[in-house]
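Need tokens for this chain, all 257 residues.
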Amino acid sequence: MFTTAAPFLPTDSMLTSEGVAKFPYANVPAGPAAPTDPPAQLGLAGVYQPTVNPDPSLAQSTYPGERDPAITLTAFQGDLGLGSGQPQSVYDIDSRQIALGRLTSVGTKTLRPGGSWTLPDGSTVEFLGTKEWITVSIRHDPGEGIVLLGAGAILVGLMVSLSGKRRRIWARVAPHPDGGSLITLGGLARTEYPGFAEEFAAVAELAGGEPAQGEPRPADDGAPDQPAMTEPESAGLSDTGLSDAGLSDAGFRERGR
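Here are the structure tokens for all 257 residues:
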């Protein structure tokens, strides 16, 4: 006697389910000399209905609860191909074995719990009943907190970069014809920033220069006046690759030392 429990998968909302029960040693005497693939193996392909349909031609349950459970079995005898080395599904009979004639159907019968069926070779199949089962998927991801923290840091950095004012200042130091050094400053605001002129004038003051004509001058803090500034020629910063128009708004500073 061989007893097995086979999983059946639902195929509709009424829990009509399909599955297979395989008995590789159903007709083989017990012992170490039993062949791996005996020619009289047994496979049962079934359709289970929790509430059997009154129409026998429709193998589809009418209610998901087990009000009138029944299973329709189709028996196959022959070589199930379990020893061929090829992977098989636990939910299906290997169709390749049927196509090659190694498995043949020997009958179909509908059984209710406790019912039995005698096959042509004298074997008896009994339907013992069902047990409900579920599939549970559990996942633990310890990196979620790190990913969330990184996403928050990216958003903070993006807001800071959007609120910041991008500006550039270049300085060139060259020998002055009268001795000392000639410092030339140039600036460019990368965004629309009206306060850049005042900031650039403050930088020029720190370098010891004066605002160019027409540009605002920071408030006098009591420091002594600096020597007058002269405007350089437009070619003075041509090596930076910036156009004259691009630097005219920012202004230039130079002082001889």
